Amino acid sequence: MIPIAKPMIGQEEIDAVVSIMKSGSLAQGPKVKEFEEKVASFCGAKFGIAVNSGTAALHASLNAAGIKAGDEVITTPFTFAASSNCIIMQGARPILADIEEDTFNIDAKKIELAFTKKTKGIIPIDLYGQAYDADAVADFAEQHGLHVVEDACQAIGASYRGRMCGTLGELGTFSFYATKNIITAEGGMIMTDNADYAELCRRFRHHGQSEKTRYEYHELGYNYRMTDIAAAIGIAQLKHLPEWRNFRLSRDKVVETLRAKGVGCGIYYPKPLHMHPFYMSMGYKPGMFPNAELASKEVVSLPVHPSLSQEDLNAIVAAFEEMSS
Ligand SMILES: *Cc1c(COP(=O)(O)O)cnc(C)c1O
Fold first, then answer.
1. Which numbered atom of ligand 1 lies nearest the CA of 176?
2. Which range of residues forms the domain containing residue 217?
3. C-alpha–C-alpha distance, residues 118 and 73, integer Å
4. For the chain, which end, N or C, has fewer CB atoms within 10 Å of the first or last residue's CB respectively?
């Protein structure tokens, strides 16, 4: 059976863990700090605050944004329970809004239906690594003064209009659970550009103590700290993220292989309308429709007509299996 998920653990991860074990300093320490700085810089965020799960990252983010008992926070019903349970953990109430049919992410047009006088925030989710419509959600949030906490637990390394997932809201969260994009076994991180939020999250993971003045409790917190063992795994994993993210076959190779195997295929459409002379003469220019231009470089059309036999379908599937193995 092909496993549904498989952590990619190499010698580097194993050596990193062994060296932390031998160092004798296992709990939150310099490796956690290094991991935070590396993830924040990878994502273009000012601050990264490591915690021991994606759930803890969501909980700390809502707390930093000031979500409290009596508030309402809008999220979707099509996600892992943590996206919504963290709202209840703050004593607030999750209000669900439906998803878009094509992206499975929150439908900005449905947020209005869930909105009440008690609404204080929105948790959009980048489900399956696909960014939610951040501009549309930000428009609504700005109009109504709402906090946006991005649940990017499945989306480290993904982006939206040139901005990295995890940085699309005021706070964003990653999970490094064993089946996620990169792993620390259990773990999570908060991204933010706001120094006050960062400090609140650091205190929240440490029973309300500031890391500068220990044994002075500012407010309620938890033990949500990450270990240096976990962080060392994360640092090794992060290095691989660009190459794992870019795993893709070149279109030319796909077309060539399919044709060699007798599978007809086409490219519809290799050039969007606005890049043809006739349309350019009407004033259209390359660069005006970046999504259409990207699609024209990536799409491949496969045979899909009703007279395909089971044998034909098997041959097409086998060709793809061979290319990706
Ligand atoms: C995994 C996940 C979480 C929670 O992360 P944990 O590290 O398991 O606590 C939250 N939201 C989404 C969308 C997730 O996929």
1. 7
2. 11-241
3. 8
4. N
